[in-house]
Amino acid sequence: MTLGFGVVGTGAIGREHIKRITKTLTGADIVAVTDVNQELAEKTIGDLDLNANVYEDDSALLQDDNVQAVLVTSWGPAHESTVLKAIEAGKFVFVEKPLATTAEGCMRIVEAEQKHGKRLVQVGFMRRYDNGYRQMKQAIENNFIGEPLMVRCAHRNPEVGERYTLDMAILDTLIHEIDTLHWLVGDDYKSIQVTYPKKTSKALEHLRDPQIVTLETKSGIIIHAEIFVNCQFGYDIQCEVIGEEGIVKLPEVPTLEYRKDGVLGSGILQDWQNRFNDAFNNEFQDFIDSVRHKGEPQGPSSWDGYIAAVTGDAGVKAQKSEKVEPIELPDRPEFYQQKKSEEIV
Amino acid sequence: MTLGFGVVGTGAIGREHIKRITKTLTGADIVAVTDVNQELAEKTIGDLDLNANVYEDDSALLQDDNVQAVLVTSWGPAHESTVLKAIEAGKFVFVEKPLATTAEGCMRIVEAEQKHGKRLVQVGFMRRYDNGYRQMKQAIENNFIGEPLMVRCAHRNPEVGERYTLDMAILDTLIHEIDTLHWLVGDDYKSIQVTYPKKTSKALEHLRDPQIVTLETKSGIIIHAEIFVNCQFGYDIQCEVIGEEGIVKLPEVPTLEYRKDGVLGSGILQDWQNRFNDAFNNEFQDFIDSVRHKGEPQGPSSWDGYIAAVTGDAGVKAQKSEKVEPIELPDRPEFYQQKKSEEIV
Amino acid sequence: MTLGFGVVGTGAIGREHIKRITKTLTGADIVAVTDVNQELAEKTIGDLDLNANVYEDDSALLQDDNVQAVLVTSWGPAHESTVLKAIEAGKFVFVEKPLATTAEGCMRIVEAEQKHGKRLVQVGFMRRYDNGYRQMKQAIENNFIGEPLMVRCAHRNPEVGERYTLDMAILDTLIHEIDTLHWLVGDDYKSIQVTYPKKTSKALEHLRDPQIVTLETKSGIIIHAEIFVNCQFGYDIQCEVIGEEGIVKLPEVPTLEYRKDGVLGSGILQDWQNRFNDAFNNEFQDFIDSVRHKGEPQGPSSWDGYIAAVTGDAGVKAQKSEKVEPIELPDRPEFYQQKKSEEIV
Amino acid sequence: MTLGFGVVGTGAIGREHIKRITKTLTGADIVAVTDVNQELAEKTIGDLDLNANVYEDDSALLQDDNVQAVLVTSWGPAHESTVLKAIEAGKFVFVEKPLATTAEGCMRIVEAEQKHGKRLVQVGFMRRYDNGYRQMKQAIENNFIGEPLMVRCAHRNPEVGERYTLDMAILDTLIHEIDTLHWLVGDDYKSIQVTYPKKTSKALEHLRDPQIVTLETKSGIIIHAEIFVNCQFGYDIQCEVIGEEGIVKLPEVPTLEYRKDGVLGSGILQDWQNRFNDAFNNEFQDFIDSVRHKGEPQGPSSWDGYIAAVTGDAGVKAQKSEKVEPIELPDRPEFYQQKKSEEIV
Ligand SMILES: NC(=O)c1ccc[n+]([C@@H]2O[C@H](COP(=O)([O-])OP(=O)(O)OC[C@H]3O[C@@H](n4cnc5c(N)ncnc54)[C@H](O)[C@@H]3O)[C@@H](O)[C@H]2O)c1
Ligand SMILES: NC(=O)c1ccc[n+]([C@@H]2O[C@H](COP(=O)([O-])OP(=O)(O)OC[C@H]3O[C@@H](n4cnc5c(N)ncnc54)[C@H](O)[C@@H]3O)[C@@H](O)[C@H]2O)c1
Ligand SMILES: NC(=O)c1ccc[n+]([C@@H]2O[C@H](COP(=O)([O-])OP(=O)(O)OC[C@H]3O[C@@H](n4cnc5c(N)ncnc54)[C@H](O)[C@@H]3O)[C@@H](O)[C@H]2O)c1
Ligand SMILES: NC(=O)c1ccc[n+]([C@@H]2O[C@H](COP(=O)([O-])OP(=O)(O)OC[C@H]3O[C@@H](n4cnc5c(N)ncnc54)[C@H](O)[C@@H]3O)[C@@H](O)[C@H]2O)c1
């Protein structure tokens, strides 16, 4: 019995995920789609040769009994409403980040889900499914480097356009580090600060780029995250955890080592799709398998979506205040307790 | 419409591939199985929870209309007969290496397939689907290093047991390099020689280990391949192509870089399953997709299986003679012309 | 004509430098030594087989006409007085860091030297002579990465003993980064801040370790420097400059790459002597050659010693206040203008 | 008491070594020079500001009592005669490779030296003084990788001119590997073979390039050495020893790691001077120190020069015959027994 997906939002990433589910992964089908742009929804059906119904909106789609899981890939502001309706309907949800655009919105989902009684929702933070991060997580869990004390990471992108605004550095770019790092070190955030180094002349007028974000966790781990979205040279994700007894570092993306023209080199990717393609596949396959065989998803939860929202808000505030901003999080409910890596695989 | 596989041989790798097809890949199902060990065939159905018929032998299995493709994972000596029957029945075949245990046997398959009129058979040489080798192939095709002149490679394994005999170094170990390297440099082999360095004290009495194999191609490329199956330290596949203008090298398997106890290190794998798991997945998905959407497989062909057999035979002869042994190959038939990487993806 | 050195302080590093000058470098001799511990001075003469006079104190030593340059390797608090006397006597001075223990002391030397009319003093900041840092400096000067925007560096040491106090993290450990980094990016410091991550359980009661120091330069470059003196795994100096168009990173110390026991590894050094031995040699040879052939030293100047003192003081203050502390530096006098790397070699 | 050098041959490398001895190293002076080109000898004195006598020829130079050691940097064919005269005169000799151009010539020197009763001669094989090779040697001596079984190495050069003839690939290029490798693995050569891969189109008409040399030692170690003198991309020396329990590899030359324009790269040198500058310095300083303090040199001996000559001759023969050529070496005389690395430093 394959898992029937209904897709809400057939834009760029919606289509990518549809292709992924139909052409690469196993155990699921697309049975229904919708988009406020109905033409686009229709076209998607045609282009990708799907055997699926097109619905007018998410509510209609949710009434289709063949829809067992909803893939929410609409614009961020539309996520909350669809997710809440899906929970109401008792359907599984895979929602691209953000879970909701406000912390309150996330909390409403958290509460609805708890009320429902078991996990239905997974948020699209795919980095936890990246092989490199997984190896780091395991090494840390196995105490390979002792207690983590510091993290140094970087999120670099060749360039961004006019539409990229200052707060997107937190809400669209850093958001992945926000989710990954607290999971990686197994701790919660306490505060966030943003500092602005000398601005690169390659950034547009309205932006400040690069930015350095300092996160501190409750146990005192200090995380320095560089965000540099006009770094020119490539899409480059770095992460290094410094522990009491040693250091682990994300492996470089494996590309050919070459010798040519006086250079001993290898390639750096230019975009995130290539960088995290395997992670996206792992993420969805895990969602499909968990839902089918364990009856609930085990990836990033609504609670993780809530943490990201609260931290993101504090980050945007910190961008403006240039001060240390507290991150106030209630204790993680029992319902959302994290599992060790070995319990998950 | 998914592709229905009938599996002949539910041993170690047969089961691995069944799991792969059912749990990871898309577009195919296992509809029938057989094994001379009927109990094992039955048990496989149960263990892996397959909805498949168990047949007495390959002939019976081939009569099942739901079987559109045959997966041949029996012992090597049994391959030829099953493949010939499958071609006779007009079914697609994925056959683990070797295609057949003799060059003549391979040639019989080549002829049967040509008589059939279109490609049906793919041989399980998965390295061509490894990401690193693919990047090398593309770099060479794009003339990134000019004409290839030399290749240096190594196939290292931690240790082997009592049953590993001298000729297995060629027929089971080197066989993968034999297939990969002529494809990589786009040339055919002319001769092979085996030399024996000082023997490691870690090898059993009856074995000579390491061995160095020198292959020369028709255009004069010289390939040095080290086979070292008791190297102790890990499973380690190396390959480097030296061209007129530069060198490309297979990337190391990406593992965490760590600093600990005075060592800046990363891990080396211990077995081939981990090393080539992605390649196996890519290989099968490509077989499934090609058969479904293009009507024929596009991976390593019967002709490639034949090349491997002829080269393997010459290699075993060279192990004994310690002389340069010619590799006599007819010209590649039009029917089996290789495609460029970009035509394949 | 070789350069005659008089050595003030024949302790650990004094003896190292004497050996260096007599056994490895060219163009200089030790002609006189003194130490408050006269026995040690005598013993040094004997142990190292020097043909040199032993004097009662620095004043007596300075009156020896054969002393053309003074090597000051006494304890820090004694440096200022000896250096001032040497300038008074018109002799060249190589003084181990610190130039003086207070900013005022350094300023007195700066003023005395300017009054003298030409440079006499070089301070023992040897990192500028390390091959890796030199390559970084040249790359930056050649605009290889565009304008520098951020620096990430780390100073890691396996462990420290009882006597290592909190302020030594700034004054003895970070002091080398303090000198190297403003030179590297060609800018002056504006402020310093110290933050304390979670403390390692390997550090003694009285210490806070690791520490993270944030330096900001006048043009807005932000430098994050990790000081971690009980990191266990080795002596590890890292430095990375992130510019508008690319990044340059200090090369790892070249050691054998090995494959053994499942590890692809190389070694990490355990102490600073091995790490910077070549730099010490280059530093002294340059001092000797410059003084002999150009009539003045060209390495780190009194002004650099003054910068280090002011920055160090602010750093110690920042350790206590846990606030951003300003670094107030007058403009660099014309007399101490920095030269480009190519003017130096 | 410094060591007085008389230099025979003030050509390119003669001048380099003179500069080295006078400007970088300690314990030696140039007291006399000669060259068949007397003008050049005179000019050298002037250019390098030497306080040395110019002699008509080597015989005259050897009569100068201030000449305690002779540096032979004339053309290869002139070496033997000068070395023999120097031994006759009881003077130390540092002779650039080759010791003599024929094996017989080398043997005459070996015999003269033995007759003299203690070592006087060191041959200019500087690689043994390269830090990377030293680390390899120590690792092997310490049994870090168990018994060595195979060696893979490469000697690559960007390009060569008209004058570079086929035999120079052995006598001028490979000669350094010839000396280094038997020392590295502590064994003697048994045979040599040369094979010619496909020729690069970048090589001139008269040359065959690349070449692969296979050396076998008495205990059965097999060495594959690639010589590629028109490799275009850089000067690149590689060496890897594969032992029973692991592998050690020469470290890459440490250059900046950078990220720029989609490349994660570091630099490859373009010439041998930069590559082996430190080795040359270590080599000469060791010669000077050993002669001064131990009364004899401890670097590569006349016997090593003889081995190189015999092996070189066999190599040139192998270039022509394209067969395995025996290398016939008498047992190493007690007089020339090798020392372990730790006995040397
Ligand atoms: N995990 C990641 O790395 C990652 C990467 C890219 C995008 N995303 C997230 O995915 C989401 C979609 O991004 P995108 O790049 O595909 O955007 P997009 O604009 O290409 O597509 C969004 C689509 O949703 C449709 N839509 C909007 N509101 C809707 C509604 N109420 N009901 C139905 N359809 C609606 C739009 O018409 C549009 O076709 C965003 O939330 C984004 O943050 C995540
Ligand atoms: N591509 C690779 O890297 C790779 C790796 C491992 C194995 N292989 C190949 O796969 C094949 C199987 O290897 P394995 O390790 O699974 O062996 P195995 O012994 O575990 O399994 C073989 C199975 O085939 C069955 N069998 C034998 N003859 C049969 C016949 N005539 N009809 C039906 N069943 C028959 C046996 O009973 C057994 O269960 C071999 O040819 C091997 O070379 C390839
Ligand atoms: N550049 C570097 O990396 C580096 C490394 C180590 C030490 N140092 C510096 O070198 C200096 C010496 O350090 P050390 O480790 O050799 O210390 P040390 O204690 O081993 O030696 C100092 C010596 O100076 C003598 N001395 C003290 N006051 C004197 C005076 N007024 N006149 C004559 N002699 C006097 C002492 O008796 C002692 O023998 C310190 O300033 C230290 O910071 C620099
Ligand atoms: N170890 C190395 O890596 C290395 C590198 C380069 C050269 N070498 C060796 O150094 C030697 C010199 O090479 P070069 O490049 O300097 O050559 P070069 O031609 O530049 O210099 C040789 C000099 O010797 C002089 N000369 C020749 N015969 C003489 C004689 N009988 N008496 C006095 N002077 C004589 C010539 O006039 C010339 O000035 C060669 O044997 C070469 O193989 C070794």
From TrEMBL, chains A, B, C, D:
It comes from the Bacteria. Residues 4-125 form the Gfo/Idh/MocA-like oxidoreductase N-terminal domain. The keyword Signal does not apply. Gene3D superfamilies: Dihydrodipicolinate Reductase, domain 2 (3.30.360.10), NAD(P)-binding Rossmann-like Domain (3.40.50.720). Pfam families: GFO_IDH_MocA, GFO_IDH_MocA_C. InterPro entries: Gfo-Idh-MocA_inositol_DH, Gfo/Idh/MocA-like_OxRdtase_C, Gfo/Idh/MocA-like_OxRdtase_N, MI/DCI_dehydrogenase, NAD(P)-bd_dom_sf. One of its GO terms (molecular function) is nucleotide binding. GO terms for biological process: inositol catabolic process. It catalyses: 1D-chiro-inositol + NAD(+) = scyllo-inosine + NADH + H(+); myo-inositol + NAD(+) = scyllo-inosose + NADH + H(+). Residues 137-327 form the Gfo/Idh/MocA-like oxidoreductase C-terminal domain. Its EC number is 1.1.1.18, 1.1.1.369. It is an enzyme of class 1 (oxidoreductase). Keywords: NAD, Oxidoreductase. Pathway: Polyol metabolism; myo-inositol degradation into acetyl-CoA; acetyl-CoA from myo-inositol: step 1/7. Homotetramer. Belongs to the Gfo/Idh/MocA family. Involved in the oxidation of myo-inositol (MI) and D-chiro-inositol (DCI) to 2-keto-myo-inositol (2KMI or 2-inosose) and 1-keto-D-chiro-inositol (1KDCI), respectively. This is Inositol 2-dehydrogenase/D-chiro-inositol 3-dehydrogenase. It comes from Alteribacillus bidgolensis.
